[in-house]
Amino acid sequence: MSSHTYAAAGVDTAAGDRAVELMKSAVRATHGPEVQGGVGGFAGLFDASALRGYAHPLLATSTDGVGTKVAIAQALDVHDTIGHDLVGMVVDDIVVVGAKPLFMTDYIACGKVHPERIAAIVRGIAEACTLTGTALVGGETAEHPGLLGPDDYDVAGAATGVVEADRMLGADRVRDGDVVLALASSGLHSNGFSLVRHILAGAGVSYTDTAADFGRTWGEELLIPTRLYTTPLLGIADAFGERLHALSHVTGGGIAANLARVLPQGSWAEVDRSTWSPAAVFRVLGDIAGTSLESSEGTWNLGIGFLAIVDPAAASEISVALTAGGIDTWQVAEVRTGARPEGEFEEGAKGVDGGAVRLVGTYREGE
C-alpha cells in the first residue's frame, strides 16, 4: 500500500464525516422554514422571499473570529463556549446598524479533526444562533496537518442580516444632547486575550489556579462566553423606533474608539468612569501586571459590552427595559456638537471619520 495517501499526509476524511454526524441535530435546530436543503450541501440555501415585505431592504454582513481566546479553550480542553463567543463577535456586529440576522456560516481550521471536539464547538455556535434568531446554514472544517498542531484550531464565521433602509441606525441619526447608555459586559468577552495570556504567563498563573476574587478558577473566569445582545437590542429597536439612534459594539479598541465610530463628525462625548465599577477580573489583571485600569482602556471592554445612543426623552425607559431584561444598563455620557473641551480625545477608528470621545473621572471602587 502506498504511503502517498491523504491519510498518510495527516488528513482523516472519515473523522470529518463523523464530526458532521455529531453536530447535525444541533445545526438543524437553528433552521426555520426559510432554510432549504438541510445539512451537508455545497452551499447553504436561505429562502429570501420574506424580503419582499421590505420596502427597501438593505443586507448587512459581518465576519470575525474569537482570537487567542481559543488557546485557553484548547489548554483546558473545554470547547462548548467558544461558539457563543463567535456568534457574539459576528452577529452582534450586524445589530449595530439595526439589522435582524438571517443566517450564518462557520469555518474551523484544525491540525487534526477530533470529531467530539469539533461537534462541541459547533453545538456552541448553534446554541448561540438559536438565541439570536440566526440560522446556521453551513460551515467547513478544514484539517491542516503540518500547519497547525494536532490539538490546535481556530474558528471564524460570517453572517448576513437585513434592515429596512429608513430604520437603519447610525451616526446620521445622532443629535446634540443624545444620551449614551452603557450595557454591561459578561466579562472580557473575546478581545485582549493576547494581553491576558501574556500577563498570566509572566506571573506564573495557571488557568487551573483558583482566584479568590472570582471564587472560581482563572480558566472558568476567562472562558465566560461573550454576552449576546442581538435579541434584546432588536426588541428595543422595535419598541422605541426612531428614539434609538445608534449602537456601538465594544470590541477591539475599547470604549472610546468604538463609540467614536458611530458619532457624527464634529460631535464629542465624555464617558464618565465614575458611573460604573469594572469587574474584578479587570482589576486583578491590572494588579498582576502593575498597570492601571486606564492603561487598558484601548484593549479591554472594562465592563461595557455595548453602547446605545438614544433620544434623551427615552433614555430612562430604555435603560429600565434593558435592565429588566437582564442586562444592567446605565447612562455614561451625553453627545455634544459644540466646541469641545481642551485635551486629548479619541477621534474615529478603523478608517471611520466619526466623532471624538474620551473617558473622564475615576472608576468607582469594586463592589
Explained architecture:
This protein is α+β, with helices and mostly antiparallel strands. It has two domains: 13-167, 2-Layer Sandwich (60s Ribosomal Protein L30, Chain: A), CATH 3.30.1330.10; 171-360, Phosphoribosyl-aminoimidazole Synthetase, Chain A, domain 2 (Alpha-Beta Complex). 30% of the residues lie in helices and 26% in strands. The chain contains ten helices and 15 strands. Strands 10-12-7-13-11-15-14 form a seven-stranded mixed sheet, sandwiched between helices. A four-stranded mixed sheet has the order 3-6-4-5, covered by helices on one side. A hairpin with a 4-residue loop joins β8 (210-211) and β9. α1 runs parallel beside α4 and α3 (82-94) runs parallel beside α4. It is globular. The model has no long low-confidence stretch (mean pLDDT 90).
| Content-based structural category | alpha+beta
Task: Please state roughly what percent of the residues sit in beta strands, choosing from under 5%, 5-15%, 15-25%, 25-35%, 35-45% or over 45%.
Answer: 25-35%
In this structure, how is the largest beta sheet organized?
7 strands, mixed
The number of domains is 2
| Inertia-based shape | globular
Mean of the pLDDT scores?
A: 90
CATH topology of the largest domain: Phosphoribosyl-aminoimidazole Synthetase, Chain A, domain 2
Which residue ranges are poorly predicted, with pLDDT under 50 across at least 5 consecutive positions? Answer: none
What's the CATH H-level superfamily name of the largest domain?
Answer: PurM-like C-terminal domain
Radius of gyration: 22 Å
Strand order of the largest sheet: 10-12-7-13-11-15-14
What is the CATH C-level name of the largest domain?
Alpha Beta
